[in-house]
């Protein structure tokens, strides 16, 4: 299929509704859009390449039909009926992430890979993790792919490999996605991040460890919370409470008791009394004894 044929097919897509979207359409228009998507899918790799070429940076022109056509094609490939065609389509999108397309277009390609991408996209998406403009959507897409058993380990390894090089927004994205994936192999890296130069990264690492319910994180997390001040101290103390509750769910009562009793005894300032009260409430409900000094 030639680029001219792809462009002609895209022009057959009906105009968007009065709000500039493809939400409120009658059945005839829906069917017309699906026919165009089917024809584009039949065009294989060449059609996908040409369709990507029609994507414009935000504000650079009217590409709403091409924009929506790419999305409908991604949705069509996500149905699992032709995995070879799906993989080929995804490889086209992933291959453009290293090219000279505008960041706005690359961001949209990453979003569409979240719809239908699988392990063939992992290497290309991983290169976006250190880009402040792309890391958020790349992280989401990788985490979505990583929830599948087959690709899970590969995704977690990419996050861990990128973490030492990431700074600022990118570092926060990676820490948060490691929390979502709850990879036990990430525990050591997350503990090290509790001493990060950036407070937001320290907080993100604390919450990641809390969500994982790793008993070995109790002491370093508590130490980090005790050293912190202001909002960071509050967030890390909250993370300690969350970790204690997760430890209780896995019947690790001794470790949970250590955390809770320490918070109960040390959060004595008026501004922190609610933490001590929360710790006491959990201890009472779980029938945990006070820890001897």
The total count of strands amounts to 0
Low-pLDDT ranges: none
Largest sheet: none
In terms of DSSP E residues, the strand content is under 5%
- Overall geometry: elongated
Order of helices and strands: HHHHHHHHHHHHHHHH
Tally of distinct domains: 2
Written overview of the protein:
Helix content is 68%, strand content 0%. By secondary structure, the chain is mainly alpha-helical. It folds into two domains: 1-117, no CATH class; 182-293, Leucine-rich Repeat Variant. α1 (3-11) packs across α3, α8 (135-146) packs parallel to α10 (168-181) and α15 (253-266) packs antiparallel against α16. The radius of gyration is 24 Å and the shape is elongated.
Write the layout of secondary structure elements.
Blueprint: H1 3-11, H2 27-42, H3 44-53, H4 64-77, H5 83-95, H6 103-116, H7 122-126, H8 135-146, H9 149-162, H10 168-181, H11 187-193, H12 199-212, H13 218-227, H14 230-249, H15 253-266, H16 273-286
Helix pairs in contact: 1-3, 2-4, 3-5, 4-6, 5-6, 6-8, 8-9, 8-10, 9-10, 10-12, 11-12, 12-14, 13-14, 14-15, 14-16, 15-16
Brief sketch in words of this structure:
The chain is mainly alpha-helical and 293 residues long. It has helices spanning 3-11, 27-42, 44-53, 64-77, 83-95, 103-116, 122-126, 135-146, 149-162, 168-181, 187-193, 199-212, 218-227, 230-249, 253-266, 273-286.
Give a quick set of tags describing it.
293 residues; mainly alpha; Leucine-rich Repeat Variant; 2 domains; elongated
């Amino acid at each position: 299929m030639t680029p001219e044929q792809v462009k002609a097919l895209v022009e057959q897509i009906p105009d968007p509704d009065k709000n500039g979207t493809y939400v409120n359409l009658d059945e005839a228009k829906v069917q017309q859009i699906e026919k165009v998507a089917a024809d584009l899918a039949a065009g294989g790799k060449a059609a996908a390449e040409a369709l990507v070429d029609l994507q414009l940076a935000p504000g650079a022109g009217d590409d709403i039909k091409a924009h929506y056509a790419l999305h409908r094609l991604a949705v069509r490939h996500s149905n699992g009926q032709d995995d070879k065609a799906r993989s080929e389509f995804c490889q086209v999108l992933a291959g453009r992430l290293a090219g000279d397309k505008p960041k706005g277009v690359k961001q949209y390609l990453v979003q569409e890979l979240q719809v239908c991408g699988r392990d063939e996209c992992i290497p290309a998406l991983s290169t976006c993790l250190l880009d402040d403009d792309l890391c958020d959507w790349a992280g989401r897409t990788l985490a979505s792919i990583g929830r599948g058993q087959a690709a899970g380990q590969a995704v977690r390894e990419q996050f861990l490999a990128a973490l030492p090089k990431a700074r600022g927004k990118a570092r926060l994205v990676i820490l948060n996605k490691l929390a979502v994936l709850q990879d036990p192999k990430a525990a050591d890296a997350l503990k090290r991040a509790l001493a990060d130069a950036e407070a937001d990264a320290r907080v993100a690492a604390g919450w990641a460890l809390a969500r994982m319910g790793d008993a070995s994180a109790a002491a370093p997390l508590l130490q980090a919370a005790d050293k912190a001040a202001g909002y960071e101290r509050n967030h890390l103390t909250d993370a300690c409470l969350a970790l204690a509750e997760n430890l209780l769910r896995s019947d690790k009562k001794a470790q949970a008791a250590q955390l809770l009793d320490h918070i109960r005894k040390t959060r004595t300032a008026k501004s922190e009394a609610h933490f001590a009260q929360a710790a006491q409430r959990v201890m009472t409900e779980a029938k945990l004894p006070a820890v001897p000094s």
